[in-house]
Design brief:
Shape of chain A: flat
Helix content of chain B: over 70%
Number of domains of chain A: 2
Number of helices of chain B: 25
Strand order of the largest sheet of chain B: 1-2
Strand content of chain B: under 5%
Order of helices and strands of chain A: HHHHHHH
Number of strands of chain B: 2
Strand content of chain A: under 5%
Radius of gyration of chain B: 23 Å
Order of helices and strands of chain B: HHHHHHHHEEHHHHHHHHHHHHHHHHH
Number of strands of chain A: 0
Helix content of chain A: over 70%
Oligomer: heterodimer
Number of domains of chain B: 2
Distance between the termini of chain A: 57 Å
Structural class of chain A: mainly alpha
Shape of chain B: globular
Number of helices of chain A: 7
Chain lengths: 164, 548
């Protein structure tokens, strides 16, 4: 399998991104008013971004050749995901929290999110689980109260509380 | 004018609610600055959602409390534990920690605290004096000049944020691009919405900022399993009595160091992106070079504590000067403050001080008052700090992630904003891991719309693009942008090359040209000095040409 320098990978990704966005910029409507067109500024930014991405790609390829990148640590390895285990758990819990926000609401959803994340990151021992439950109820309860009663923000109630 | 100042004074000092908010803000700032892994910028960003329900004066006063408190918070952890709470207190550790270990913790804390106070006061005076003058200068700017100023702000941010300049430019351009998504403000045309109605409003500033900065920082903080589960600090120090009187006497006796360091801080603060993390080291270095007791540095030298602490607090005033006078953020914190003003439909710019004098002078007064709170709260916050350090990072991170979601939702009451925060959080985290600086992207997002608006105005007035090069201020900023982009290459280049010999003199000569074009006698004199100095340096170094 060919090892890819992460900068090369990012540069290719950015070039693809620029290509898609430049293509999309052709769809920007021109209302025919005088002055600068709506697509002008984003196109300039995207062209500059493409040039810089190309520079990054060339630099990364040259750097890879010069430093014999196959031996370097700066290459993708399958176990790299273990390094980001905690971050991935945060992403996963946050997506779950957002996906169920309409049903659970900010209060219940928030408590479950904090409790779930604390337990995933902190461990599953009984004593810790009890602590995590107390922390999540108290902190989210306080935050919810400050925003709801203090700042008069109508936080998502959730279908469960609405039924009650 | 006096009545405006009195009204602003009353709105801060005579309003118990504002004072209470500043009290809480300063306390929160001291704690945010003291906890390693947290930064002052993060403290200010997390304060922003609470300010929606406040008046603009109250909101900015609270954020200023966090800002000023944060700088002094950093000194507590670095002195008591040897671990800098924020990058802006790194140099304080060099002599602060040895001073504490030599049995003078009260004096060390006193020196740090009062140096911060005096540094902040000096920068506050300069802020009040300089910001309105700079704003008058800003009134000369047309859209061409403003556009070029934004380009300069972005390039110098890229240049000073460290690391790879290509990655910095890409980050800045990504920020500018993110600001183009949604309905175009000039023509009202949808851009890059891909058929989603939610995208039409564009990405709100706050979710992007919280995602890029706070969300990604929290993920970095819990990345290491062992570190995330252990208390924030293994050594958390002990409560000590601060030696106020002795510290003040020592600092005032070394007033040259105090003023020099404060001016270094102010100057660094004025430069976009160059914050306390740079100024404290610069000031320490200059204090060491100027000291007669150079050998004492690193062993608990008083000047080694005074210099970085005076400089980092003075940086806050410097950063505010640019924000107040020109509407250009000096760092991430002032970018957040700009965002806070925009939430209240106040657009900062050269006319800001004239249009909103009450708010502008309110900011000046709040900056003064925050320093008094900082001194008053130090002993109390030290006790809270010792308690907070016992909490593991994963607990703080989990709770703050939930708080971010609630805070972001409070902005427009739409769940889409939380998705935006999450999306930019992932991007921010990935960028950090791939060594892309975040500051240029944040500035790009903040200044993107402003840049486009000024470009549209400029091309609307005249389609002659040469005006960007003919107008003196525009030319000045574009030249500064080029010089700032080349600066990292100058830093990395070997000392005896032709490039390093001519970089500074050529920059001086180039900058003299727009100053001559401005026509005003003072500016022409400054231009003449720059030109003469540049030519003199080239003449002096002309031997290099003979050898090549």
């Amino acid at each position: 399998m060919m090892n890819i320098n992460k900068d090369t990978f990012v540069a290719i990704f950015l070039l693809l991104f620029c290509g898609i966005m430049i293509n999309s910029s052709f769809d920007i409507e021109d209302p025919g008013y005088q002055g600068m067109k709506a697509s002008f500024w984003p196109t300039i930014v995207l062209i500059l971004l493409s040039i810089m991405s190309l520079v990054m790609l060339i630099k990364s390829i040259i750097f890879q050749r010069e430093n014999n990148y196959l031996k370097s640590n700066n290459t993708y390895k399958p176990n790299v995901f273990f390094k980001f285990k905690n971050a991935l758990m945060c992403f996963f819990m946050f997506v779950l929290f957002l996906a169920f926000l309409d049903y659970l609401g900010m209060l219940i959803g928030g408590v479950l999110f904090v409790f779930g994340l604390l337990t995933l990151l902190g461990g599953f021992q009984l004593e810790k689980i009890i602590n995590h439950l107390i922390i999540s109820i108290i902190t989210i309860g306080i935050m919810w109260s400050i925003f709801t009663f203090g700042l008069k923000v109508i936080l998502p109630e959730g279908e469960i509380l609405r039924i009650w | 004018m006096i009545d405006v100042i009195l009204q602003a004074f009353a709105s801060i000092v005579l309003d118990p609610v504002t004072l209470g908010l500043m009290f809480i803000g300063t306390l929160a700032g001291i704690l945010a600055g003291a906890i390693p892994g947290f930064t002052i910028a993060m403290g200010v960003i997390l304060t922003l959602p609470f300010t929606f329900g406040m008046t603009p004066v109250q909101g900015l006063a609270t954020m200023l409390g966090v800002f000023v408190g944060g700088f002094s918070g950093g000194l507590m952890s670095c002195m008591l534990t040897g671990i800098p709470g924020t990058p802006s207190s790194v140099a304080t550790t060099f002599d602060g920690f040895p001073l504490v270990r030599s049995g003078k913790p009260g004096l060390a804390l006193g020196l740090g605290l009062w140096s911060s106070f005096f540094g902040g006061m000096i920068s506050a005076v300069i802020l009040v004096a300089l910001a309105p003058q700079l704003a008058f200068l800003g009134l000369e700017f047309g859209p061409w000049d403003y556009f070029s100023l934004i380009i300069f702000a972005l390039t110098i941010t890229v240049s000073l944020s460290g690391g790879n300049i290509t990655k910095g430019l890409i980050a800045g351009l990504l920020g500018l691009f993110a600001a183009t998504v949604g309905e175009d403000e000039i023509n009202g045309v949808a851009r890059f919405t891909f058929g989603f109605d939610e995208f039409k409003q564009g990405f709100a500033f706050l979710p992007v900022l919280i995602g890029l900065f706070a969300f990604s920082q929290l993920l970095t903080d819990v990345e290491d399993d062992k570190r995330a589960k252990s208390p924030l600090m293994s050594q958390s120090g002990a409560v000590v009595k601060v030696e106020h009187k002795q510290a003040i006497i020592i600092i005032l006796g070394r007033w040259i160091n105090l003023f020099r360091s404060s001016f270094i801080g102010i100057f660094t603060g004025i430069l976009p992106a160059a914050g306390g993390s740079i100024s404290n080291i610069l000031a320490y270095d200059q204090a060491k070079k100027a000291s007669k007791n150079r050998s004492n540095f690193g062993k608990g030298e008083y000047d080694g504590v005074i210099a970085p602490e005076a400089a980092n607090n003075a940086t806050a005033g410097g950063a505010l000067i640019m924000m107040m006078a020109l509407g250009i953020p000096g760092d991430i914190v002032t970018a957040v403050m700009l965002g806070a003003l925009m939430i209240h439909n106040i657009i900062p710019g050269p006319t800001f001080i004239q249009d909103e004098p009450l708010l502008a002078y309110g900011v000046f007064i709040a900056f003064f008052v925050a320093h008094f709170f900082m001194v008053g709260l130090q002993a109390f916050s030290l006790r809270i700090f010792l308690l907070v350090t016992k909490i593991p990072m994963y607990v703080l991170a989990s709770v703050i992630l939930a708080y971010c979601a609630i805070g972001v939702f409070a902005l427009h009451n739409v769940v889409f904003d939380i998705w935006v925060m999450f999306f930019f959080g992932v991007i921010g985290y990935a960028m950090k891991k791939l060594d892309f600086p975040l500051a240029p992207m944040i500035l790009g997002v903040v200044l993107g719309k402003l840049a486009e608006l000024n470009l549209a105005r400029a091309t609307g007035i005249s389609d002659d693009m040469m005006l960007f090069l003919i107008r003196p201020w525009s030319l000045f900023f574009l030249l500064m942008a080029i010089i700032s982009i080349v600066f990292p290459f100058y830093q990395d280049a070997k000392k005896d090359t032709l490039f390093t010999k001519i970089y500074v003199p050529i920059s001086m000569i180039l900058l003299a040209l727009p100053l001559f074009l401005m026509g005003s006698p003072v500016r022409m004199v400054v231009g003449g000095i720059l030109l003469s100095a540049g030519c003199y340096f080239i003449y002096k170094r002309s031997s290099i040409f003979k050898t090549i």
